[in-house]
Structures are given as structure tokens and as C-alpha cells.
Amino acid sequence: MRNLKQSKVLSLLGIAARGRNLVSGEFQTLEAIRKGSAMLVIIAEDASDNTKKLFSDKCAYYRVPLEICETRERLGAAIGKDLRSSLGVCEAGLADAIIKQLKEKQSAV
Question: Are 24 and 87 within 8 A, CB to CB?
């Protein structure tokens, strides 16, 4: 069951990337948070502690939901890129769908 939920999240990220509703990489994600276009930020579980703290602080200040899931490799592969430790979803419907999948995954564990 766990892999099914993870794959739904990853496929939603892929849809967001193809629809140009996703930014990736530290600089672009931070810029989207500051501009108010990021509806959800996802950080890889294996990102550095500094990266996690940076995004945790920024997301708290700008009131952007933050989720930590997957590895840098899997996040990058989901959007057709190399390793990615941070992603910003810039479309509200997709952000809500991803949050819903992650919450279902957490309650199933």
C-alpha cells in the first residue's frame, strides 16, 4: 500500500511538471515562495539539514504548506530531471491533491 500512495504522489508531481505548474531546485523554489506562487513545497527526506531548516523557516514565514517525502533521486526522476531536493507546486488543485495523498499515506501507516 505504501508504494501505491508514493507512486500517486510522484505521478501528480510529474503531471505538475508537464503542465509547467512546478518549480524545482533551491533558487527557483525559494523565489516561488517569496512571490506567493508556491502552493506547496516538497523537500526530499535525504536533503541536508540546512536545506530542511531553510525551507521550513521560509514556508512558516510565508505560510506555505511544507511536506518532506521521498528521496532526491525519486523526486528528480518523477519530474524528468536529475536529483532534486526541493520542489514547489504552483497550482492549487495539484497541491491539494498531493497533500491529500500524503495525509492518506500517513494515516495508513
Answer: yes
